Amino acid sequence: MPQEIRVLQCSSISCNCYQVDIVKKANKWQCKICGLKQSVFKEIFRGNGAECRAKVQQLNLERGKRQQERDMNDIDLLVELEKGMDDIKELVPENIGTQKNGKQSKWSKYVDENIFASNSKESPLENSYNNVQSRQQQSLNKCSFPPSTPSDPQFGAKSNSKWQNYL
Q: Any transmembrane segments, and where (predicted)?
C-alpha cells in the first residue's frame, strides 16, 4: 500500500509556503521552513510523492512570482512618492517664516528652524546631541571648584575620611 501525501500551505504570514506532508490521523503538522506547529485548515492536493512534489514546486513558483510582482509594484510606488515629495519641496517657498508684505510671521519666533530647507550637514539628532554636550560643558565650567593651593589650610592636612577622595 503506497503512502499518501498531501500538499499544505503554511498559515504563517512570514512563510506562507506550500509543503508536502504525510497523511496521518492527527490533523496537526509543523512547517519545515518556519517551524510553526499548526492544524490542517485546507488540503490543497493529495497523491503520491512525485505528484505532490511537482505540485508544491509549481505552487511555490507561482507564489514567488506574485510576491516579486508585489515587490516591484511597491518599489514603483515608492519611486513615485519620492518624485511627489521632490515636487512638494520645489513648491514650498523658501521664505516660510515671513509674510507677503515682508514682515516676520508671529509663528516664526516659536519655530526653531525651517523644516523643509535643512541646509546643515548634520542631522537634527546630531544637532541636539551637540547642543546637550555644549550645555553640559558650560554647566561643568560654572560649577568647577578652584584648585587647592598651599595657602589653603586643608592642603597639607591628611584626612581621616575616605569620603574626602570623592568630594
A: none
Q: Say if residue 96 is exposed, middle or buried (CB neighbours under 10 Å; 0-12, 13-18, 19+).
A: middle
Closest CA relative to residue 45, chosen from 7, 11, 19: 7
Residue 12 identity: S
- Cα gap 88→70, rounded to integer Å: 27
At 66-87, the pLDDT tens digits run 999 999 999 988 888 888 777 7
The C-alpha atoms of residue 92 and residue 102 are separated, in whole angstroms, by 17
Q: Domain range spanning residue 7?
A: 1-94+117-135
Spatial separation of the C-alpha atoms in residues 4 and 47, rounded to whole Å: 6
Domain count, the chain: 1
Q: In angstroms, what CA-CA distances link 19 with 26, 113, 118, 127, 134? A: 17, 56, 52, 52, 60
In a domain, 18, yes or no: yes
Pairing of strands 37-39, 28-30: antiparallel
